[in-house]
Every structure is written in C-alpha cells, then in structure tokens.
Amino acid sequence: MPADRRLDPLASKVEAGERLTREDGLLIATSEDLLGVGRLANLVRERLHQDRTYYNINRHLNPTNVCVASCSLCAFYVPFRRASDGWTYTVDEAVRLAERDVDPSVSELHIVGGLHPKLRVDYYEELFSVLKERFPWIHIKALTMVELDFIASASRIDLDELIRRLKAAGLDSCPGGGAEIFAPRVRDVICDHKTDAGRWLEIAELVHKNGLRSNCTMLYGHVETAEERVDHLLALRELQDRTGGFQCFIPLAFHPDNTQLAHLPPTGGRLDLQTVALSRLLLDNIAHIKAYWIMLGEKIAQVALHFGADDLDGTIVDERITLAAGGTAGRGMSQTRLEQLIREARRQPVLRDTLYRPLAAGG
Ligand code: V47
Known about the structure:
Blueprint: H1 8-15, H2 22-30, H3 34-49, E1 52-56, E2 58-61, E3 66-67, E4 78-79, H4 91-101, E5 108-111, H5 121-134, E6 139-142, H6 145-154, H7 159-169, E7 171-174, H8 184-190, H9 197-209, E8 213-220, H10 226-243, E9 246-253, H11 269-282, E10 288-289, H12 293-296, H13 298-304, E11 311-314, H14 321-324, H15 335-344, E12 348-351
Parallel strand pairs: 1-11, 1-12, 2-5, 3-4, 5-6, 6-7, 7-8, 8-9, 9-10
Helix pairs in contact: 2-10, 3-11, 4-5, 5-7, 6-7, 6-9, 9-10
The site of ligand V47 has 22 residues, from strand 8 and strand 9.
C-alpha cells in the first residue's frame, strides 16, 4: 500500500492541532493509505490520552423490543401489532432482570428499547426511581434522543418537562444511539418514519442544556457514501462546539443479518478502522472515541486502539440489538479479558465510570 502523499499537509495540520475541514475529511475517508490515516489518528489519540484506554463494568437492559418505527436497519424490534411475539417488561420484571445482572462492581446501567406507545413517562419515572433505590450507586444511562422524542409525544408533554422529570427520577445521562446517518436520502432507506436529523440534534442540545451529558453515534457500512459520513460527523462537531455535552462518540458497524437490508454485506475491518480514524480526526472537540467491541469484534476493537479509539465500552453481559442482527462477538466480556486485550495492544487499562472518572480497578 503506497503512502498517500496527499495526507502530508493534513499531517502538518494534525501536528499543529488545527481543525480539519470537510475536504480533509473526504480525503481521510477515501484514502487508500489506511496506515497513513491510522498514524494521524493515533497522533491525536496519544496527545489526548497517551496510552490510557478506558473501559467500564456495565449492564444492558432493554425494557421492550416492541417498536412502532419498523426501521429497515434493525433486527431487534417486533412491530406493535405483533407485540405478543416480543417482550415488554413491567417495572418489577425489569428490576428483577437488573437484580440478576447487577453486583456492586457494576457502575452503569445502559437502558434502551423500542418505541412502545404504552410506555410513557410514568413508566420510566417508576423504573428509574426503583432502580436507584435498589442500586443507589448506579449511573443510569438511558433513552436515546429518538426514545425521548417518542415518549414526550406519547405522554403529551414537552421535552423540557420530560427531561426534568426523568432526571428527577434518576436519569444520569443519555446514550448515543438513533443518530444513524443524518442525510435524509439515507434515512429514507434505513430508518424512515424515525426522528429526523434536525430533531435528533435539537433534542441532544436540549439534553445538554438540562445539564445531562450524552454520547453520540454514527451507523455506517450500509447505503451511505463517504460524503454522508463526513457530513454526519461535522454536524456532531458543530453541535459540540455549542454545548460541549457529548462525552464520547461511537461508530457503529452495521450488522445486516435478519434486517430488511440483509442483502448487504457486513462491514470489513478496513472500513471499521478507517471510520474510527476519521472520527478521531474530525471530532476534535469530543474527548473519547469508543471501539464498541460487541459490534467490531474483539480483534478489530483491539487494533482500533491504534487507529484513534481510547475506549472499548464494557462488560455488558446481556446485549440484544447486535445479537439479533447476527453479531458474533458474544454478549459479555470479563473485566480480566478486557484488560488483557488492552494490555496486549500495549495500552494501559483504566476502569472508568460513565463520566470517564477513573475507578479503582479490581472490582
Ligand atoms: O440506536 C440498530 C444501532 C444502536 C443495528 O452511548 C444497529 O455508550 C448495527 O447506540 N447493526 C444501539 N447497529 C447501540 C448504541 C450504543 C451502543 C453502545 C454504547 C452506546 C453509548 C450506544 O445500534 C441503535 C442503532 O443505531 N443498530 N440495529 C444493526 N442491525
């Protein structure tokens, strides 16, 4: 693979800490020189975090897979008219599942699910407050911008009120899902009828204004172009300039199995690594880039620690979204294995909480 000399001017910019442009982004996204791109992203990663690589001890909880959105990208949902084929937990059932999975070492519950018209604000208020009562130390990272949008309208309240009430009940931050790709052309194909890009960004801004941090994501490797990937990242960068509320970006590798887009091939390691690097280089105002091992697989996630990523996500245990779409990485990983992967990559593991504060290891 010959070195791409067109990256040379970018190297000077990256070394000087200058912001990259849309054209720079396009060059990075389309360059044949994967290692050249990776080297640049690694410079930024090491400037920000040296060898540190973050992970957490977390658990996932999906209160329902019943969803009115029917996105073609998704293998997780059951449509509302076939609700009995899916699951919708009562608050008691959801708390029992959490009791099965949570022990004192777990610092975060990641709670997301389908858009179920009967699960309104009072359900989530009760769920979060009972979970907080039961596990007072736990950080509740729950509900994407798309879910917040839906719950507010199903509950006939405005988003400000929804966020205030959920926060009072125990919501601590929001995950980054549902952003997909912002381009309307792509949304029409992969997630028609869902909260659009402008609204996703507006709600993220509102979440940040209400004092909650959130993450952000991009689902890549389906029908989007390199331009659409770059523009998605630039829209996130622009919002972050205004709010500073995103703490982490997660590139999500599309898994086609059992979706309406099952004819598409899964992503390859090259696109995975180039997208991690592109994200690190363009998102100069977001501190952390997560190589989500469940979607990337252990090995690509590990190598991504040299292509711009500084976080592997967590121990997880019961992940259902990727599993439904043919994910083969497994559903959970031990703390020991996460640390092994990080050390074998010649990086230093740092056990963190959701807000990236280091925790004493050995839990
Ligand atoms: O919103 C759905 C995506 C997201 C598929 O914030 C799919 O820390 C691939 O957002 N193939 C959920 N992706 C996952 C997510 C996430 C994961 C880990 C950490 C955080 C965080 C957020 O997964 C969905 C959607 O964008 N998704 N179906 C699929 N077939």
